[in-house]
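Tutorial sheet, problem 5. The three components below are modelled jointly, 838 residues in total.
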Amino acid sequence: MENHEESHVTSYALNAKVLLVLLSLTVLTILVIKLHLGAFTVAMALFIASIKTTIVLTYFMHLKFEKPILRVMVGGIFALFAIIIVITFIDYYFR
Amino acid sequence: MNNPSPTAPLNYLNHKTGLWSWMTATDHKRIGLLYLYSITTFFLAAAVLGLLMKIEKVAPGETIMTAQTYNAMFSLHGIIMIFIVVIPGLAAVFGNICLPIMIGAKDVAFPKLNLFSYYVYITGAILGLYSQFANGHSPDAGWTFYVPYSAEVNSNIILALMAAFTLGFASILTGLNFIVTIHRMRAPGMTWFRMPLFPWSLYATAWIQLLATPVVGITLLMVVAERTLHVGFFDPKLGGDPVLYQHLFWIYSHPAVYVMILPAMGVVTEIFPTFSQKPVFGYLPIVFSSLAIALVGYFVWGHHMYTSGMSIESRWFFSFLTFIVAIPSAIKVFNWLSTMYGGSVDLKPPLLYAISFIFLFTIGGFTGLILGAVATDVQVHNTDFVVAHFHYIIFGGMGFGFFAAMHYWYPKIYGRMYNIRWANIAWGFLFTGFNFLYFPMFIMGIQGMPRRYYDYDPQFQMGQTISTIGAVILFIGLIGMISNLVYHVRRGAIAPANPWHGVTLEWQIPSPPPHENFDDIPVITRGPYVFDNPHTK
Amino acid sequence: MSTTEHSEHSEYIDSETGKMGMWLFLFTEIFLFGGLFIVYSVMRAKYGEDFHHGALELNAFIGATNTVVLLVSSMTAAMSLTAIQKNQPKVAIALIFSTLLLAGVFMINKYFEYGHKFDLHLYPGSEVMRNLPKGEIMFFGLYFLMTGLHLFHVVVGGVLLTIVMLRVKSGKINSEHFLLLENGALYWHLVDLIWIFLFPLLYLIT
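Model answer (structure tokens):
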């Protein structure tokens, strides 16, 4: 059967606002790099990238308005990937 | 469409006829059969290769083939068996045939995608075969494609890698289809915990297929890039790290072991209640142990690499987790035994195979602990012990699980019954031959017989000969079993809809099932294993 | 057996089902690139200095421009969904078309970026690259593989969105049935997501 559940409509204005935030975060990334924070640079760059990712997932990809199961899945996927990286580095960090 | 004769009601086998209707079939049962026939063909071919390897080893020195031929043979045997037969095996064949029926759906969520993934699979399989016969040498780097050897050797490695990549893609699509099917297509009233346990095991499997396969896909592509573009991600000469290849390879290939074994566990979990006429013991523990195996199975890949130069901390960590993953498997074994305990056990061929599954899987599992402990693994690493261990798990587990499923659902699939006596005898040959073939390899492995050698010291003569005899017995059993099944597809006695008095949904519809399984989608009001049929008491 | 409920008989797949299928597919894409990110992080830990020198060779300005281009295209893709839901197919077509234009800009930038590397004979297997320090060979190897694979996804996404645009034109995608547009946009956002990580990790290494 067709699914006639009303799907959520994101307004044009919200999309534009999200873009503005994403663009400012991009500028922030470049600034952070230029500041030469040493060891923190990579961490900061990755942290900002994760924020941007979360914003894209939440608004552009409509995760905020989807069924909870999809949000659980997406969260699980990123957690799983993080664990795999950590476990790999148990080898490389101690070698 | 042909007019049906009044005696033969329309079912999925005869509702359309002709080769074209099979090649374009989107019916999940037909696609399952397409997989069954393809997989059986490849299985027989690779089994012959295995037999030839054993014949080579009947006496020391060169018996029937050269060392290079032997290398190509074990590579081909491994590639076909792992990537073309065992990994798709149960999920693609019985998952396709049974999953939608068991959850009360008319088909999978994306029937066309299902057909498409079959063709992707066939393309991969043909590529794999082509890599053997194309110009140049057939691949000889084993099924694991370890660098730097696979990056340097002058044989058709790229073709074989592309084949594995393509087959992985087919596996991903099947997994994707099953996850969506289970989430979206369950019949009304079939809550998650009213779902039979074979679909549960397929659900856990599908997640592994979906999330682990892409990693090996990109890894194989990197090896291709290494061979064609001279980049050297893994080649130490170019600054790469060969151990990193092993990490990436096993991040996929260890979970892939659970892709092989979990559906087999699901199959026997269906068989024990039916042939004991008793509800399954511990439904929830079985569900959660399947999920736990799938999850923890992701984090144990390093136990293939104890001798590769990983850090000590890493070895400790992987060994610890490997022991953890044994727990859910053991839980399942206890549940199966308790399901049979006190039931009215009916020792028909499916149950014979299921019981031998427990026997072989337990031996394979315990020897796995020897390999999972760092200290003992260093002793037996890369010996015949490892080969014996994973054949007990993969052939004894997945293989016998597959045979069990074949004998269990055969009357449902074809609407005919095979010869039970014949099947029992074939089982006897298979089980005996199997143990004669692989058990001596444990002993020889401990004594130091390396794997992948075409020759051996005279001290191994006895064990090798017993092993070869076992291989011949096993092969006779295999031929016996398959000829029984093939012969009775057309000539067998007509089977009733529910010959084993099963209670899951597939037994409540005619044999063979109609094209879309159910005229009316059933409404589920209770759990999957409630036995209140009149004939049980 | 006269059922019209079954997906095989319906021209349209149930939208929740179709979307879940797409999300699962995106997960596989994440793990595909994930494998490359694992190699990247291990190699960067090993060759930090060389990676820095390698990154200086890359044109961060083009990288930043492409980041902006992709972010804007992601917004137009998201907006096209809003448009079709509001039953404004003309607006939707215009928005998808702008997404495609931006994809074109991205590819043109990439053409100049790669072209410059080839002028310097900096490409996998070249004499120049073979004489670099090991860490830099690794860096450029990863650079070409990661951006190349990403570029391939841009092309696939472009083809997908072109099909979507044609279907909106023919009315097959409309305010009632827009699953394909939704999935096409999801795919495009993924392309954007991956670039969000590629940009700082490849172009901005200190």
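Marking note: Residues 17-203 of chain C form a domain with the Four Helix Bundle (Hemerythrin (Met), subunit A) fold (CATH 1.20.120.80). Full credit if you identified this.
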